[in-house]
Specification:
The chain is α+β, with helices and mostly antiparallel strands. Helices cover 29% and strands 32% of the residues. The strands form three sheets. It has an eight-stranded mixed sheet, with no helix packed on it. The chain has a four-stranded antiparallel sheet with strand order 9-10-15-12, with no helix packed on it. It starts with a helix and ends with a helix.
């Protein structure tokens, strides 16, 4: 065996290995640094949402009550007086008259104090401003809370029901470092032997994306007064305009919405009018405005504009027989002429 040849090979490996190591070391360090900075998202000059938690409770009539806790880091760049939260008002359909989701705002807080400053409707959303409009908030970490409910957000699909809910929304101009969602179903529905979940999914990313950077846990409980909990938790940062959405289906039909309750027709009509009023207020005003104008003209025509009834008098020649030829000439020509005088 030629040991000199082997030693030369080992020596060359050491030389080339050292060169490769020297070249790759900065590249490895750069990649590692970028990875760490991306995962931790430690930016000292950018505002961000540190934690977004949503606790969802579903009642037996299908109404869902949501309590959100939003922890933000403010640097007085964009978060000066507080934050705002956009909540959808209507079902996401292409119908001419969209269906209301029955949104009701319960309360809003900033650092434990009531903080709903303003509400405004904008592009199918209700924008809730949380904070103090008259003064700047301090730099640092602040906790915002908002509670609200939806009356008819659970949808029926054939023999199944669906909860398709955007937990965080996709309108945030800040990254969300961590987001969680807990969903609690009524205890009696969960304990029903026929009840079962057919689909439990969640999506992360921008609008329309279906990235699945999350974990799911089903938390059982032995407490008879509490129900099992569905827990969703993101595993990666949600960048600007990204969010967390849950998609849950189950069967059989378990919730009775107000539209499907067996109530008398009068209450159903009033409920439909109220729903139409809440959903399409401008169209409601336009419809009743036109109706009032029509009623006004109908009443005015009835009392003033109606033609008098025709007199039912049989034709008679007695009056004609009493008129002279000149008078008849006058009536015929509707005026005097020379022949009227000649016939007098």
């Amino acid at each position: 065996m030629n040991f000199n040849f082997i030693l030369k090979i080992k020596s060359s490996y050491k030389i080339y290995g050292s060169i490769i190591f020297v070249i790759l070391l900065p590249l490895i360090f750069f990649c590692f640094t970028v990875s760490i900075s991306g995962n931790n998202y430690q930016s000292s000059n950018e505002e961000r949402i540190l934690f977004f938690s949503s606790a969802i409770t579903i009642s037996e009539n299908g109404q869902i009550i949501i309590h959100e806790t939003i922890v933000v880091e403010s640097l007085n760049i964009e978060i000066n007086h507080g934050i705002y939260r956009d909540l959808p008002l209507y079902e996401n359909t292409n119908s001419f008259l969209p269906k209301s989701l029955g949104l009701n705002i319960i309360e809003g807080k900033m650092d434990g104090n009531p903080a709903i400053a303003k509400r405004e409707k904008k592009n199918g959303y209700l924008r809730i401003y949380l904070g103090d409009p008259n003064s700047y908030i301090d730099k640092g970490i602040h906790t915002f809370e908002i509670s609200y409910s939806y009356d008819s957000i659970i949808k029926r699909l054939n023999d199944e029901e669906l909860l398709y809910l955007n937990i965080t929304g996709n309108n945030w101009n800040f990254p969300i470092l961590k987001s969680t969602a807990t969903i609690v179903f009524p205890k009696n529905i969960i304990l029903n032997s026929d009840f079962s979940f057919t689909t439990i999914e969640a999506y992360t990313g921008s609008m329309g994306e279906k990235t699945k950077n999350y974990t799911f846990n089903y938390i059982f409980t032995t407490d008879s007064k509490k129900a099992d909990t569905l827990l969703f938790e993101t595993t990666d940062i949600l960048n600007k305009f990204e969010g967390l959405t849950v998609y849950i289906k189950w069967k059989p039909i378990s919730f009775i919405s107000p539209e499907n309750q067996e109530i008398d027709k009068t209450k159903m009509i009033f409920h439909q009018i109220k729903s139409f009023y809440n959903t399409n207020f401008p169209a409601f005003i336009l419809f009743f405005g036109v109706l009032l104008i029509f009623l006004y003209y109908l009443v005015a025509w009835t009392f003033v504009g109606r033609d008098p009834k025709k007199m039912k008098v049989p034709p008679s020649t007695n009056i004609i027989e009493q008129l002279s030829p000149s008078a008849l000439r006058y009536i015929w020509k509707m005026g005097f002429d020379t022949q009227c005088l000649s016939t007098a």
